[in-house]
Design brief:
The structure holds two protein chains of two kinds. Helices cover 75% and strands 0% of the residues of chain A. By secondary structure, chain A is mainly alpha-helical. Chain A has one domain: Orthogonal Bundle (MetI-like fold), CATH 1.10.3720.10. Chain B is 25% helix and 36% strand. Chain B contains nine helices and 20 strands. Chain B is α+β, with helices and mostly antiparallel strands. In chain B, helix 2 crosses helix 3 (108-121) and helix 3 packs across helix 4 (137-149). In chain B, the strands form four sheets. Chain B has a six-stranded mixed beta sheet, sandwiched between helices. A five-stranded antiparallel beta sheet of chain B has the order 13-12-11-14-20. The chains are: A mainly alpha, B alpha+beta.
């Protein structure tokens, strides 16, 4: 008889992989709680003072807000562009040229560092777009391919005759999109939101080029801080970034439901 | 409420592909008309043009005097039943049925009452609160039917509604559809590739091929008097034999083909032209072993057993023919026989050219 229990070697390997993934995080969390003025592990003495220090440094306070604003607005705009784009690409798959779908995922293929530099040249230097706006445009473009891909995958299994049925019953096409199509790809929209938000929140390469005097994002500020100081603030801010990421997932899970992960 | 549908000289082209050529078709108020043909014949295109999912290149479509040609689908007021049911997965059975009423601004209580009454009629009132995903294929199609009927549309259309159901259920469902359609007197267009389904359910059937209407008539007429060789072959007239009239004596025309003479009555077939095709089903050719019989000399080939008869592949001077012979005397391959047409089971066609 086949056993439902996994093979012992498989268990060991899985455990090792998890260990490999988790140990750096444990070290970061440990270092963040250290009472010393330098980064160390295991922590010597327990203190939350380096967490307090994040908020004492105005650059961190500002960049956390900027990062959240950029991530939220960038994701929102990417959804506003990406959902209709994904819809059109799937609904008119036969009529539209094939390369159009590829066009939307092309930014993923361009190295982010090149993408960031290109945006700097065109937006900031070329068009003189203000820093915050350039960051927002950059992040919107950065996450758009993920949004289009994830929602396209959701729409690929959507039966468009359902939409036709609703229209035949008297529901106007635009209204049908919101009452029939969108509720049925909700899981895809949620997944796209989380993926886009986290990608934006943790981005370094694109932001590196687009941040400027007075306006920066949290990951860039962490880099800048490490260049000058070696205190545990950088560990505590990393923990905070992790916490923000988890919090976003938790909030989305609570409000919209993460049931798609089980599907 | 019930209204006639007129399709007038409608053509539809995709780029250079002519999907539909100059189709004219009228469905009388309360009538059920099937569009029948193989895939790619233009039947689904016709349905989608009537529904408004496609626009015709030329021509017009009117429903009860209302010109639909340029009207968007959601204002056409047409009930549609799809092959894959197309129920709203995120709504309950009841909300699915009530959807069309909601679009018409009917109050929630009234909506619920009417939707329940319709579910009652299709025998699914007990499942009103279920999700569509929890239903069987037959139940889903009943919900789809209820959803289309509850808005009391002047026109009801079916797009291969039974294709996803098993054979037994298909027969039950088509009877049910016909009964509901009759009871409501709703003008209906029914698209199918299944000849038996089309013939059993319809007042009239439009047989289509390659974007053109081949014949549009009552099933009885299509079955007995196809208008051209395409329809003849489609409804099972497998033997088509060319004849020439050689003598006319009042009502009776004497005609001949390679190795055979035949006397045909014009009171049975209508006016018989000088050259024509005689079409029969395998049942319409009697296999005779009597040398004196007046029939087409033939050599028997492969014999197959049909249950009610033996079927023979036959080689004749008029080409390859198929005939059914009686069960009591099975004949061996290679036997020389005469194939005798049974006039009542034959029909006469004009020679091809305008097919």
């Amino acid at each position: 008889m086949m056993s439902d229990r996994p093979h012992p070697i498989l268990v060991v390997i899985a455990a090792l992989v998890y260990l490999f993934l988790m140990v750096p995080l444990v070290i970061v969390v440990g270092a963040a709680l250290s009472d010393t003025t330098y980064l160390t592990f295991p922590p010597q003495g327990l203190s939350l003072r380096w967490f307090e220090n994040i908020f004492a440094i105005s650059a961190f306070r500002r960049t956390i807000v900027t990062s959240l604003q950029i991530a939220f607005l960038g994701t929102l705009f990417a959804l506003l562009i990406g959902i209709p784009a994904a819809y059109a690409l799937n609904r008119f798959r036969v009529e539209l040229p094939k390369w159009l779908g590829t066009l939307f995922v092309l930014p993923i293929l361009v190295p982010e560092i090149v993408f960031g530099f290109a945006l700097l040249k065109s937006l900031t230097v070329g068009a003189g777009v203000p820093i915050f706006l350039a960051l927002l445009v950059g992040h919107t473009l950065l996450v758009l391919p993920y949004v289009v891909r994830v929602i396209s995958a959701s729409l690929a299994s959507f039966d468009f005759s359902i939409e036709e049925a609703a229209i035949s019953l008297g529901s106007a096409p635009v209204k049908t999109f919101f009452t029939i199509v969108l509720p049925n790809v909700r899981a895809g929209v949620i997944a796209a939101f989380i993926l886009a938000f986290i990608t934006s929140l943790n981005d370094v390469s694109v932001s590196l080029f687009l941040t400027g005097p007075g306006i920066s994002t949290l990951p860039i500020q962490i880099l800048a801080h490490v260049e000058q100081f070696f205190d545990p603030t950088v560990a505590s801010v990393s923990v905070l970034l992790m916490f923000l990421t988890v919090a976003v997932m938790a909030i989305v899970e609570r409000t919209l439901g993460l049931t798609f992960l089980a599907k | 409420m019930t209204q006639p549908l007129h399709i007038d000289a409608v053509s539809a082209h995709y780029g250079t592909t002519k999907v539909l050529e100059d189709l004219s078709l009228s469905v009388q108020a309360g009538e059920l008309v099937s569009l029948l043909g193989a895939s790619g014949c233009g039947k689904t295109t016709t349905l989608r043009l009537i529904a408004g999912f496609l626009s015709p290149t030329s021509g017009s479509i009117t429903l009860g005097g209302r010109d639909l040609t340029r009207l968007p689908t959601h204002k056409r007021d047409i009930g549609l039943v799809f092959q894959n049911y197309a129920l709203f997965p995120h709504l309950s059975v009841l909300d699915n049925v009530a959807f069309g009423l909601k679009q018409r601004g009917i109050a929630p209580a009234e909506r619920r009452k009417r939707a329940m009454a319709m579910l009652e009629r299709v025998g699914l009132a007990a499942l009103a609160d279920r999700a569509p995903g929890a239903l069987s294929g037959g139940q889903k199609q009943r919900v789809a039917l209820a959803r289309a009927l509850v808005i009391e549309p002047p026109l009801l259309m079916f797009d291969e509604p039974l294709s996803n159901l098993d054979a037994k259920l298909r027969v039950d469902m088509r009877v049910e559809i016909r009964q509901l359609q009759r009871a409501n007197g709703t003008t209906s267009v029914y698209v199918t590739h299944d000849q038996e389904e089309a013939f059993s359910i319809s007042d009239r059937v439009a047989i289509m091929n390659a974007g053109r209407l081949m014949q549009f008539d009552r099933p009885e007429v299509l079955y007995r008097r196809p208008a051209n060789t395409f329809v003849a072959r489609f409804v099972g007239f497998e033997n088509i034999i060319p004849f020439k009239a050689v003598a006319r004596d009042g009502d009776v025309v004497t005609a001949e083909t390679a190795g055979m003479r035949l006397r045909l009555s014009q009171s049975l077939f209508g006016a018989i032209p000088d050259t024509f095709l005689l079409a029969t089903r395998p049942d319409g050719l009697t296999v005779s072993i009597e040398a004196a019989a007046e029939g087409l000399p033939a050599r028997l080939g492969l014999r197959t057993y049909l249950g009610r008869a033996y079927q023979y592949q036959c080689e004749t001077a008029a080409g390859h023919l198929i005939a059914n012979g009686i069960l009591t005397t099975p004949l061996e391959a290679g036997t020389s026989v005469k194939l005798v047409p049974v006039p009542e089971q034959c029909t006469i066609l004009a020679p091809d050219g305008d097919e």
